[in-house]
Amino acid sequence: MNRLITLRRALMTASAAIAVLALAACGAKSDGMEGMDHGGGHEEPAPSTSAAFNSADVMFAQMMIPHHRQAVEMAVLAETRAQDPEVKALAAAIKGAQDPEIATLTGWLTAWGQPLEAPTGHGSMPGILSAEDMENLAAASGTAFDRAFSELMIAHHEGAITMAEEERAKGQNPDAVALAGTIATAQTAEIEQMRAILARL
């Protein structure tokens, strides 16, 4: 009888030990899988927005967002008011380039924990058009619109280039500085194109 009790206890102890080992093995497997999952996530490149930035980068993004938005508004007007095919095509190209840049700049400010708008407002931005300028542009059509659009967008682009060059000189974030270079190069070329358009209108 004593032997039977002892045998049962031994079997119970052994079963418990096996159960513990099985659970430990499952836990180890689970941990390993989770580790693999996490490891896969860590292999992705860190977002560029985590790089260092300074006040010049922040100001560049805060000012360029509304500046770009106004250029996009002008481009949208061209869809129904422009007559010259080259003006229409250029306006579409401006909208196609600047819409994604607005999203990029907004993403950077969010990642940096900075407000999307500059506390000083936008009145001091170089090249920004007044409400009256925008109203006059919206009221024009045909060749008159083509000429007004080109003249105003040249001034607008020149302001953006000024802001971009300041970022290139003072900015710290490499991606922001690179975008500033892209903006300066692209808009310089577009200014030359619009001057050629004005010369033949």
Arithmetic mean of pLDDT: 82
CATH C-level name of the largest domain: Mainly Alpha
So, CATH architecture of the largest domain?
Up-down Bundle
Give the amount of beta strand, in percent: under 5%
Largest sheet: none
Structure description:
The structure is a single chain. With 201 residues, this protein is an all-alpha fold. The protein has 2 domains: 44 residues; 148 residues, Ferritin, CATH 1.20.1260.10. The chain has 6 helices and no strands. Helix 4 packs antiparallel against helix 5 and helix 5 packs antiparallel against helix 6. It is elongated. The relative contact order is 0.13.
Name a few traits of the molecule.
about 200 residues, mainly alpha, Ferritin, 2 domains, 6 helices
In summary, what is this structure?
The chain is mainly α and 201 residues long. Helices cover 80% and strands 0% of the residues.
Topology, element by element:
Layout: H1 2-42, H2 55-81, H3 85-112, H4 131-139, H5 142-170, H6 174-200
Helix pairs in contact: 2-3, 2-5, 3-6, 4-5, 5-6
